[in-house]
Amino acid sequence: MYFRGRQYEVIFRNVFTNVQYELGKEILTLSNKSLEENGSGMFIQRIIGDTRTISAIFTDINRYMNGILSNIGIIVSFFVINKPMFFFVIFSLIIKMTIETKRINTYNKSEKEFRTLNDSLTSFTGEIVKGAEDIKMLNSEDSFLLELRKRFTALNEKKFKMENTKYNYYIIGWNWYSISHLITMCIIAFSIKNNTLTLAMGVTVYHFSNRYSNLIFNITNFQELIKRFNLSTSRILEIYDNEKLPKETFGKKHLDKVKGNFYFQNVTFKYGKNKVLKNLSFKVKANETVAFVGKSGAGKTTIFKLLCKMYDDYKGSITIDNTNIKELDKDSIRGNITIVSQNPYIFNMSIKDNLRLVKADITNKEIKEACKMACLDNFIEKLPDKYDTIIGEGGVNLSGGQKQRLAIARAFVQKTEIILFDEATSALDNETQTKIQQAIDNLQKDYTILIIAHRLSTIKNANRILVLDDGHIVAEGTHKQLMRNCKEYINLYNTEIRKKD
Ligand SMILES: Nc1ncnc2c1ncn2[C@@H]1O[C@H](COP(=O)(O)OP(=O)(O)OP(=O)(O)O)[C@@H](O)[C@H]1O
Ligand SMILES: [Mg+2]
Predict the structure, then answer these.
(1) How confident is the model at residue 201 (pLDDT cuts 50, 70, 90)?
(2) What does the pLDDT read at residue 499?
(3) Centroid of ligand 1 to alpha carbon of 299 (angstroms)
(4) Number of neighbouring beta carbons within 10 Å of residue 425
(5) In the Cβ-directed half-sphere of 419, how many Cα atoms lie within 13 Å?
(6) DSSP 378-438
(7) 274 ligand 1 Cβ < 6 A
(8) Please, what is the end-to-end C-alpha distance for the chain in angstroms?
(9) CA angle 345-358-418, nearest 5°?
């Protein structure tokens, strides 16, 4: 038992780890739409709960199989000792199994719904934990707790109903057990009276008759285990093969070094029914610096996302170096484009490790260099653990501007030919912004840089400014040209840009 126990643990752990890893890998291949349309709870529960259920089968199955096999011998001995008893045991088994199968099937159906409800509750609790700071500042703990209680109550009610059905079946099963016990005693008594069984054998059969209920117990548990296994497997396989969760698809063509000649040609794109880009066309030449301006919600970030192929259900075509991005493989696109996004995600690890994520073999010198360029080195050097300081989930220990600067440092580490800055300096003070702008300016000419910005100092340095309005580019040119002939730009300048510098 000692060795078996150890072996089971090894099997369980290995299966659990492998299935979790494979599932995690699979989730990362899902398209952005699949991830956005489903709450995080659905994925978390599958990675944590369902993988555990399916891995546990390898240890549990053994336990029940042992129980089943060792008790089958009893039925065989009944056949040898007393035929009426044998036929009754078979009959009793069939009745009990019918009841149990019905119970398990009913329970399993409700359990499927229960787990879906549980998925959404996990998403919600996750949101409460992540948004705890905002909830406190909004002073709205009560309404969140009320909502949480409501959801827990709905989940519990579902569970109570399920358990109720289960106990109804149990009552039928227990009654049948008592009846079958009585019948067993009658059969033994009659057999002794008819001299087909000695008294000693009668006592033995009675004693063993209790054990065949163990067999039923093991068989039904086994059935239940299989059902739970099937449910968890189907939930996991849903992620692998589901029309509602499309995967990202990439072409086969590989470009080693992309220069950065972009061409958006009549691109139309919508999020659900919301048409964001309408017949949008523009060109960017390699090593050019282009700024995008437009009102909030105009679709600037969306353009960057399409360029990185985060969505591919758009009309029209997007090409990089004259190759349609739909033909390119993943590395050609994402390995050649660095994006500093509007809300960069900083991971709960040290500063060093956050930078190592984008370049595994980075040296300490390179890390320092990148942070200096992003004006973050001074701040890091003042921290007690310097570059080994752990940053907290989502970068909670950092200010908005420090987070942005770390994201910029990450981009400087990755330093691909194409760099996209999405309002990367919006949270910085003028002095820091100027320094970083200088670093970005130093990259110009050798890199293709696209910048979304609201500051004149940033956009003035660009070779060209593209003005986005109502889903398409309404004008392009330098600041001076646009101030002369583009009313959307003038409007934007007067309401936003001028105030920021
Ligand atoms: N994932 C999404 N799902 C659905 N709609 C979205 C999604 N992302 C953006 N949108 C919508 O698309 C429109 C364009 O959004 P986008 O983020 O591209 O705007 P933006 O120009 O970058 O604005 P801002 O200057 O405020 O960052 C908005 O109306 C927004 O509500
Ligand atoms: Mg944006």
Answers:
(1) confident
(2) 63
(3) 6
(4) 26
(5) 27
(6) HHHHHSTTGGG-B--GGGTTS-HHHHHHHHHHHHHHH--SEEEEESTTTTS-HHHHHHHHH
(7) yes
(8) 75
(9) 90
Where b means 16+ CB within 10 Å and e means fewer, 225-252 reads bebbbebbeebbeebeeeeebeebebbe
Residue 320 host element (H or E): strand 315-320
Q: Which two tokens stand for residue 346?
A: 């900083």
Residues 336, 325: contact at Cβ < 8 Å? no
> What does the block give as tokens for 414?
């990755």
Nearest to 483 by CA among 453, 450, 459, 458: 459
294 lines ligand 1 (CB under 6 A): yes
Tokens read off for 317:
């075509």
Most confident region among 54-58, 121-125, 357-361, 490-494 by mean pLDDT: 121-125
Least confident stretch, 115-129, 210-224, 301-315, 323-337: 210-224
Amino acid of residue 145 = L
Helix (H) or strand (E) holding 121: helix 83-130
- Look at ligand 1, atom 31, and give the residue with the nearest C-alpha: 297
Rg of the chain taking only CA atoms, in angstroms: 33
Q: How far is the CA of 298 from the centre of ligand 1 (A)?
A: 7
The DSSP secondary-structure symbol of 308 reads T
Pick the closest to residue 319 from 267, 363, 268 (CA basis): 267
Residue 194's identity, in one-letter code, is: N
**Tokens of residue 441, six digits:** 């300016």
Integer Cα distance of 399 and 391 in angstroms: 11
What letter does residue 327 receive in the DSSP assignment?
Answer: G
pTM: 0.80
Cβ of 342 below 6 Å from ligand 1: yes
pLDDT 10s digits, 9-32: 888 899 999 999 999 999 999 998
How far are the Cα atoms of 49, 142, 201 from residue 118, in angstroms, in the given order?
A: 11, 22, 53
Compute, in angstroms, the gap from residue 345 CA to the centroid of ligand 2: 15
Task: Spell out the domains of the chain, with CATH numbers in brackets.
Answer: 2-240 (1.20.1560.10), 262-500 (3.40.50.300)
- Ligand 1 and 298: CB distance under 6 A: yes
pLDDT confidence of residue 501: 58
- C-alpha 428/C-alpha 44 separation (Å) is 35
For residues 307 and 288, what is the distance between their CA atoms, to the nearest angstrom?
16
Cα 453 to middle of ligand 2, angstroms: 9
What are the φ/ψ torsions at residue 194 (nearest 5 degrees)? -80, 0
The neighbouring-strand residues paired with 324 are 319
Nearest listed ligand to the Cα of residue 32: 1
Pinpoint the alpha helices (H) of 194-298: 199-240
Determine the Cα–Cα distance for residues 312 and 308; give it in Å rounded to an integer: 10
Cα 218 from Cα 361, distance rounded (Å): 54
| Cα distance between residue 24 and residue 285, in whole Å | 38
